[in-house]
Model the fold of this input.
Amino acid sequence: MQVKKIYALAALGTLLYSCSSNQATVEDSNTEVAATTAISDEQHRLQFHFTPPTGWMNDPNGMVYHNGEYHLFYQHNPDSTVWGPMHWGHAISRDMINWEHLPIAIYPDSLGTIFSGSAVVDVKNTSGLGTAGNPAMVAIYTYHDAEGEKAGRDDFQTQGIAFSLDNGRNWTKYKNNPVLKNPGIRDFRDPKVSWYEEGQKWIMTLAVKDHISFYSSPNLIDWKLESDFGANVGAHGGVWECPDLFKLKVEGSDEEKWVLIVNINPGAPNGGSGTQYFLGSFDGNKFVMDPQFEASLNAKPAVATTVVGQEGIWIDYGRDNYAGITWSNVPKEDGRELFIGWMSNWDYANVVPTEKWRSAMTVARTLELVNTPAGLRVASMPVKELENIYGTTKTLAAQTVSSALDVSEKLSMNTSTFDLNLEVEPVGAQSSFAVELSNAKDQKVLIGFDATRGQYYINRDKAGENQFSDKFTGIQYAPRLSTDKAFDLRLVVDVASVELFADGGKTVMTSIFFPDEEFTQVRLVADNGELKVTSGQMTELKSIYKPAN
Ligand code: FRU
Done:
C-alpha cells in the first residue's frame, strides 16, 4: 500500500461508543457516518483482513449467514490490547471481505464472561424464542466464571444461550441460563451447534479437556449427552478447544464424509496453537473415524509427506491460524463450507507489536474434501469474493530462473497487498525455491519448498521485529501432499501476513510478521538448480478501507 491515508468505516464510531458504554444501542447500524479516523495507516494494520478497530481480539465466534449478511462475532476485550474479560464483538459483511463493525453483541453477566461459541438460525422455531415468520438467531456460548475459577472450583465453565430477533442487532440472554451445566471438568467449552437433519435435532460439539463430547437437543435448551470422542487419537500436546462438525462432499463423487475439527493449544506441528481434524461418519449419536484416515493418523508418513507433528492431520501448518470454525446457515444453493480462523498463536498473541489493536482473522476460506496420494484431505482456498478487491493484474512471462527473478521489477508492481499465482517446476530433484518478500532494510520473509526435506516452509526469522517473544522465530514446515512435478502456488499477502495455498489448497500455511517497512519487493529465488516458471499472475489487492479524497 503506497497511499495510506484512509477513512475507516463509520461504524467504528459506534463500536467505540459501545466499548465505553455498557449498553449496546444502535440507531441504524447500516448508516455510514463520516468518520475520519485513519486507522489503516497504523503500522502493521492489515488492509483487507478483518481486524478489530481497537482492543483485543481472539477466536472467531458465532459465524452465521442470515438475510444476506455474514455475521462474524469474535472474542473481544474492548478495554485493553491483551486478553481479559471476554465479550462477543460483532461485524457483518455481504462478501466476507468488506466488513461493517457493529456494537458489542454479548456482554459478560453474573454467570461469567463470554467465551467462544457458535450461532444458528432456529428456522423451525424449536426453541420458541422466535416465531415461524421471524425465527430467532441463537448464540450458544461458554460462560467463564472467573470467580469460580479463582475459588478453586472445577465447574466454572457452563454453556449459555442468547437470542436476537432483529438480524443480530440486539441480543437478549435466555432467562434460565446456563442451559448446560458443568459436570466438574475444568475445560468444558466452545459449543459448536448445528442442525442434524436426519435426526431432526440439534447437535452440540463441545471441547472437553482432552476429548469431544456430543450433546443433542430438540430445542437448543435441553441437552443430552450422546457420546465422547478422541481421548486417545490425534494430537494431545495441549487442551482441545473450539471444535466443529460438518459434512463435506468427497471430490468427484456423491459420497459425503463428516469432518470433525479440533483446535488444540499447545501441540500444533510448528509449536503453540493449531487446527487438526478427523474424517469419519456421524449418525446423530457417535463420530466414527474412517479406517483409512485412522490408518494414516497412525502410520509413519512416507518421506514425500513427512509431517512435522505427525500425530495429527492439520488444516493449516503455519503458526497463525487458530480456533477456526465454519459459518452456519449458508444457503443450500451456495453449498460452500466457509471457514475463518484467528491469525495468531497463543505462544505470542498478547505481545505482538501492534499498538491500539491486536490480531486479525485469516482470509475467509472454502473447505473441500479432495483426493491426495495420502488419502482424502481437507483443502482450503480463499473465498472467490476476494476478487471484489482485485486491482491491476499483471502476467509473468514463462521463463527459466537460474538464481533469482525480481518479480516486482519485472512487473513494475511494488505493493504489499497482493494475490500471487505461480506455476513453477524445479529443474533437478534437489532444487529448492522460494518466494521472497522484502523491504529496503533487507528484512524478508521466505515462503518456499525445501527439496531436501520434501516440505514447504516459511521463514520469518529476519522479517523485522521479533524480540517480543522467544517463541516467534524458527522455520515452519509443512508436508507436500502432491506428487506433481509442477508446483501450483497461491500466496495471499497483506502488510503483515502471508497465506500460502499450495497444490490447490492441499497444503496451507498462514504466518504473520512485523517488518519496520512494508514488504513491497517480491523475488523468486532458485536454490541449487534452476526453476522453470510456466505461468505467473500477480494481482494487487485493494484496501477495504476507504481512500481519502
Ligand atoms: C481458544 C480459547 C477458547 C476460549 C477462548 C477464550 O483460543 O482459549 O477455548 O473459549 O479462547 O477467549
User: Anything to note?
Assistant: The helical segments are 11-20, 146-150, 291-298, 407-411. Confidence is low (pLDDT under 50) at residues 1-37, 302-307. The two ends are 16 Å apart (CA to CA). The chain is about 5% helix and 45% strand.
